[in-house]
Amino acid sequence: MSEDLYKIVYCSRNTTETGPEEFWRILAVSRGNNARDSLTGALLFSNGSFAQVLEGPLAALERTFERIQCDPRHAGVTVLQFGPIESRTFPDWSMAEAATMSVTADGAAAEALDMLRQLVGREAEWAMAG
Amino acid sequence: MRQALCALSRAPVRTLRRQRAGLLVSADDLTGLADRRTFRESLAAALAEGAPAVVMVDLDRFKPVNDSLGHPIGDALLCVVAQRLRSAVREEDVVARLGGDEFAVLLRQGATAERLAERIIDLLSRPYLIEGHLVTISASVGVAIGPRDGANAVTLIRNADLALLDAKASGRRTVRMFRAALCERARARVSTEAELRRAIALQQLELHYQPQINLETDRLVGFEALVCWRHPERGLVPPGDFIPLAEEIGYIVPLGEWVLRTACREAAGWAGGLTVAVNVSALQLEDGDRLLRTVAEALEASGLPGSRLEVEITESALARNEGHAARVLHALHAMGVRVSMDDFGTGYSSLSQLRSFPFDKLKLDRSFVSNLSESHEAAALVRAIASLGASLGMTTTAEGVETDEQAGLIRANGYTDMQGYLISRPVQAGDVPALIRRLGCQGVAREDLEEK
Predict the structure, then answer these.
(1) β-pair partners for B396
(2) What is d(CA A47, CA B24) in angstroms, rounded to the nearest whole number?
(3) Of A30, A130, B175, B224, whose Cβ has the fewest other Cβ atoms within 10 Å?
């Protein structure tokens, strides 16, 4: 059961003065953790919001999501998708940085990145739900 | 996944052990948090040293999660809640599970309690992933700060509980600070509760009767019985002021039985075969066999024919008992008793419910009548409900009719009966015969009534 692949897509609002430096630090830490836990995905930070795709074994995914939940640097967490998947969308990325990845992505990954970009652009809509 | 959760939940046990090294400490088995006894002892110690706060936390909508996803998922959720609480406080603070889905935080720096309470609500209301399920709950929080709100542990915990009840009552997902008025309210409630439990024995309850007339003949068809409380100090207390409390404390069952017996006895003496309508609560409906027995005994003791008794049930009572309610209502029918749906239009009834329950009557809720002349939508609904009742062969009664204009609209929209201040307020049992003579009843000439 815990080896089943799951995927989650969520958004949240930045609650601190996260500058580019802080963002790269978050990314570096999450890449380290994710590599260890066989998680992959993509993170987009824009417009004061985070949007993330996270995929991997269920137990590790739930543990990581719970750690993210307790992080005081964001609020208004809204889950847009959660469920089992057949295969990974970002098999080669422990955590892709979505803003600079557009050139190299194709297929499912490009679609997922597009969705993240649309999400952070429509913060007002999903923040209402959370 | 269960293993992962348990591994994570060991952290609080360690913290607790460190905090209370050398002392006998009891912990909650599921979450590893402190239990009630440890919490109380820690609080007593903290009160001796400073000004700690008790932050009482209760999960909103936990029960539906437990019911729909099962207890193992519910337990796993409680473990994650425990971790989130632990993550929100300092090492020196104590987090306890007091039971069920109730948690408490002992905050050594009491002054920061309100801010922490807001953070707890935010944290616990974030989504949870539990064994492949996405779960959302929220939390209500009550805060009491010592020694101002309570100088000893027991009082401070009780007052934080009162603040929590206030938070729950004011719509959940909110924090409430303790204030002295909550204490008085609780005291008043406790004494009202005790007095109410004695009301039947002290013969302080009495039935008042509000007439219902047929719109075609303008004659009486029956009365609705309303229970009032003749309180020695407060005077006559209307049902709306004590029935909700009676429901909450379960006293509605004996009270409802008293109403049934009394209404049948008093109505048996009325002229002209008039009906008496009695409200039956959700709790009474739940114990259907007892209700049926009470009705049968009340009819037998009074000699009132079943056809002159009408049982009124609200939509929400039905919604709670859908499973066996139909069986009970059919059994009432078999005794000749009429069944009506009360406050129609305010609850959750669906059209299919109207088909599966054997209703004889729909009572249109008073809120529709009072909005009738102001809103087009209300008027359209009032019309639709009348034709719905007519096509299902039910009597339709409009409640709360107060003006001639409303009566005209109700009549024009095809209702069969009405009830309200326009005809008469509820009257005492002793005044019923005079009212019957004044209004005249269906099928009996006024002169015949005069002779009685």
Answers:
(1) B362
(2) 52
(3) A130
Q: Is B113 helix (H, G, I), strand (E, B) or coil?
A: helix
- Find chain A residues with C-beta within 8 A of B130's C-beta: 62
pLDDT tens, chain B, 452 aa long: 343 343 344 444 444 544 544 455 688 899 999 999 999 999 999 999 999 999 999 999 898 888 889 999 999 999 999 999 999 999 999 999 999 999 999 999 999 999 999 999 999 999 999 999 999 999 999 999 999 999 999 999 999 999 999 999 887 899 999 999 999 888 888 888 899 999 999 999 999 999 999 999 989 999 999 999 999 999 999 999 899 889 888 899 999 999 999 999 999 999 888 999 999 998 899 889 999 999 999 999 999 999 999 999 987 787 766 667 888 999 999 999 999 999 887 766 666 677 778 899 999 988 889 888 787 888 888 899 899 899 889 999 999 999 999 999 999 999 999 999 999 999 999 999 999 998 887 655 555 554 44
Distance of alpha carbon B418 from alpha carbon B441, whole angstroms: 14
Quick check: A8 and B128 CB within 8 A? Answer: no
Q: Which two tokens stand for residue B266?
A: 């008093």
Q: Which residues of A touch B129 (CB under 8 A)?
A: 8, 61-62, 65-66, 82
* C-beta atoms surrounding B26 within 10 Å: 13
B77: left (phi over 0), alpha (psi -120 to 50) or beta: alpha
Strand order across the A96-97 sheet: A74-84, A5-14, A49-57, A40-46, A96-97
B201/B207 Cα distance (integer angstroms): 15
Contact B129 A65 (CB under 8 A): yes
A79 closest CB neighbour out of B1, B127, B131: B127
- Residue pair B277/B305 in contact (Cβ under 8 Å)? The answer is no
Write the DSSP symbol of residue A99.
Answer: G
Token pair, residue B41, equals: 């002892």
pTM score: 0.64
Cβ pair A56, A38 in contact under 8 A: yes
Nearest to B129 among A4, A72, A82 (CB): A82
Is omega for the bond preceding B147 within 30 degrees of 0, making it cis?
yes
Residues of B with CB under 8 A from a CB of A: 1, 4, 8, 80, 83-84, 87, 119, 122-123, 126-132, 134
**Among the listed residues A1, A12, A33, the one whose alpha carbon sits nearest the alpha carbon of residue A120:** A12
User: What phi and psi values does residue A3 have, to the nearest 5 degrees?
Assistant: -90, -5
Name the β-bridge partners of A51.
Answer: A11, A44
- d(Cα B339, Cα B350) in Å, to the nearest integer? 17
The partner residue sitting opposite A62, judged by closest CB among B1, B87, B123, is B1
Short-list B100, B105, B102, CA closest to B12: B105
Distance from CA of B40 to the nearest CA of A (A): 27
φ, ψ at B383 (rounded to 5°): -65, -45
